[in-house]
Every structure is written in C-alpha cells, then in structure tokens.
Amino acid sequence: QVQLVESGGGLVQPGESLRLTCAASGKIFRPYVMGWYRQAPGKQRELVATISSSSSTNFADSVKGRATISGDNAKNTVYLQMNSLKPEDTAVYYCNFNPTYGRTVWGQGTQVTVSS
C-alpha cells in the first residue's frame, strides 16, 4: 500500500510563490506518474502538473510558464513550484500517485489560498 504525505500549502498574496511537496512511501514500483491536481469550490478536480518516473512532465495550460515540477526518484518525492500565483489558483491541491502496475492513490489534500 502506497501512502502520500503532502506539505507546503497555505495563504499567499497574489504574485507570490509556493512550493508543494509530496512524498510517497510503501511498495513503489516503476514506472509511475506522480503529480498534482486541484479542486476549487464548486468545480471539478483538474490537472495541475505531473511528472513520470522517467522525468516526462505535463502541465495544465493555466499554469504553464508559472509552474515547475521536479522529482527525486531516490526519495519518491515530487515538488511543485508555483510562481506568480493568482487568486484563481486558490483550491485544495491533491497529490496523485498513478503507477502503471497497481492502484492509483490520492493524498488528503492541502489548501492553497491566494488572497490579498
């Protein structure tokens, strides 16, 4: 069973930056894709960014140019750096672990609020 521990959410002002961290533990087999999704009130959960165990990345159009995602395979940890944050980035951010062989796992979510 894979478990995810998220950290890094909080309240920031527009234009500021934030880094989210997600660490996976348990029986982890490659290949896999890890990343972040978000859900704002009244909206569906949507992709933010993902990175595969072979370092391929994917970004939502809404964060391209403002977000970077990186991974540490030795630690099974993924980092999402978001810059130039906007109020519309406010949401609960969920880490996702999606292995090719095995079950998809979601984190418990971390709140990101962008407000002045």
Please tell me about this protein's structure:
The chain is mainly beta and 116 residues long. The protein is 0% helix and 53% strand. It has no helices and 11 strands. Strands 2, 4, 5, 6, 9, 10 and 11 form a 7-stranded mixed sheet that branches. A 4-stranded antiparallel sheet has the order 1-3-8-7, with no helix packed on it. A hairpin with a 4-residue loop joins strand 5 (46-52) and strand 6 (57-59). The chain is globular, with a radius of gyration of 14 Å. The model has no long low-confidence stretch (mean pLDDT 96).
Summarize the structure.
This protein has 116 residues and is mainly beta.
Overall, the morphology is globular
Distance between the termini: 40 Å
Q: Which stretches are low in confidence, meaning pLDDT under 50 for 5 or more residues running?
A: none
- Total helices: the number is 0
The helix content, as a percent range, equals under 10%
Structural class: mainly beta
Rg, Cα atoms, Å? 14 Å
Question: Order of helices and strands, N to C?
Answer: EEEEEEEEEEE
Give the SSE map.
Blueprint: E1 3-7, E2 10-12, E3 18-25, E4 32-39, E5 46-52, E6 57-59, E7 67-72, E8 77-82, E9 91-99, E10 105-106, E11 110-114
List keywords for this structure.
4-stranded antiparallel sheet, globular, single chain, mainly beta, 11 strands, 0% helix, 116 residues
